[in-house]
């Protein structure tokens, strides 16, 4: 059960990163697995869960994921991997996740929400 709970919370973080990487546009075939997304974003999990300070490894993980997600298909794959899990995140978790781009120096042209459309 705790493992399932951890995935739900990680899903929140993945949702905001999915929106971040979807802001870049190219075509192509997906090569990013859900395991890659989870591994890159794992350092962000404690901030999503309890707030505090964003770990430098969290920002590095986001940058790594961004550099990997070069195609639109990659970005859609990242978004779809855990979108359904992110739907179960609490409002507090979403609020914390929404702060991470700013704290890592990344500007997003949209708000983090449960309603992201992974097809766009």
Automatic annotation (TrEMBL):
GO terms for molecular function: lipid binding. Residues 1-30 form the signal peptide. The keyword Transport applies. Residues 34-118 form the Bifunctional inhibitor/plant lipid transfer protein/seed storage helical domain. Keywords: Lipid-binding, Signal, Transport. One of its GO terms (biological process) is lipid transport. InterPro entries: Bifun_inhib/LTP/seed_sf, Bifunc_inhib/LTP/seed_store, Plant_nsLTP. Plant non-specific lipid-transfer proteins transfer phospholipids as well as galactolipids across membranes. May play a role in wax or cutin deposition in the cell walls of expanding epidermal cells and certain secretory tissues. PANTHER family: NON-SPECIFIC LIPID-TRANSFER PROTEIN 2-RELATED (PTHR33076). Belongs to the plant LTP family. This is Non-specific lipid-transfer protein. It comes from Coffea arabica (Arabian coffee).
């Amino acid at each position: 059960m705790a493992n399932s709970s951890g995935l739900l919370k990680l899903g929140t973080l993945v949702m905001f990163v999915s929106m971040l990487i979807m802001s870049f546009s190219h075509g192509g075939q997906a090569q990013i697995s859900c395991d890659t997304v989870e591994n890159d974003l794992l350092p962000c999990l404690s901030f999503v869960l309890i707030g505090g300070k964003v770990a430098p490894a969290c920002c590095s993980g986001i940058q790594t994921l961004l550099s990997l997600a070069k195609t639109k298909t990659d970005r859609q794959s990242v978004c779809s991997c855990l979108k359904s899990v992110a739907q179960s995140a609490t409002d507090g978790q979403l609020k914390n996740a929404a702060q991470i781009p700013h704290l890592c120096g990344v500007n997003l042209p949209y708000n983090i929400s449960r309603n992201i459309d992974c097809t766009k």
